[in-house]
Design goal:
Elements lengths: L6 E4 L2 E2 L2 E13 L5 E4 L4 E3 L5 E3 L11 E9 L6 E9 L10 E5 L6 E16 L11 E8 L2 E14 L5 E16 L1
Antiparallel strand pairs: 1-2, 1-11, 3-10, 4-9, 5-6, 7-8, 10-13, 11-12, 12-13
Bound molecules: zinc ion (ZN).
């Protein structure tokens, strides 16, 4: 909620008083897959007597193996994908290094800040609002301490408060609220 020390305009007309309410909608976030890493305990001697093991050297877990990339093509929809496997760098025999669980799929759902929506209530001098009616899309702009927010808003309610010259308007932001430093 932002209210103090700001000047705001609706369609270029200054407003008497306003409240801007920014609502951050939570977005569900979860990791659906387990991820794996090379098993540091793995070692293997292939039929030709070549020794293979997991190295702790970053980025090069298997210095004695070559990566073989096989491209598969689905003849039905022409979709292709690559399957990587390993062979001994000397005798080319297939070797399957052991992997262990790195990060398990998150069994819970985490909430992260997502899309922001915003609404404004403005009070302006009756007459200065011009011909704004319910359903209109108007331009909104507000300034405060070297900072500007702006955007398009949908007029959802206009209320004349009794005998007063003040008119109250409720607006809902259309799309995102622009922001910039001045
Ligand atoms: Zn070998």
């Amino acid at each position: 909620m932002i209210k103090h020390n700001m000047t705001a305009w609706i369609n270029g007309k200054i407003v008497h008083e306003f409240t801007l309410n920014i609502i951050v909608e939570p977005v569900e976030f979860s990791t659906g897959f387990d991820t794996y890493k090379p098993d540091p305990a793995w070692s293997y001697t292939d039929p030709a007597g070549h020794y293979h093991a997991t190295s702790t050297e970053p980025g090069h877990p298997w210095p004695t193996l070559d990566v073989v990339r096989d491209e598969h093509i689905d003849p039905d929809d022409n979709e292709s994908w690559v399957v990587e496997s390993h062979v001994c760098s000397i005798c080319r025999v297939p070797v399957e290094p052991a992997m262990i669980l790195d990060k398990p799929a998150k069994p819970y759902v985490e909430f992260v800040p997502g899309r922001k929506s915003w609404e404004i209530t403005v009070r302006m001098i009756n007459g200065s609002a011009g011909s704004i009616s319910i359903g209109d899309i108007v331009s909104f702009r507000a300034l405060a301490e070297g900072h500007e927010v702006f955007g398009l808003a949908h007029v959802v309610m206009i209320k004349h408060s009794g005998m007063s010259a003040i008119l109250e308007m409720n607006l809902v932001g259309v799309g995102s609220l622009g922001t910039r430093d001045l």
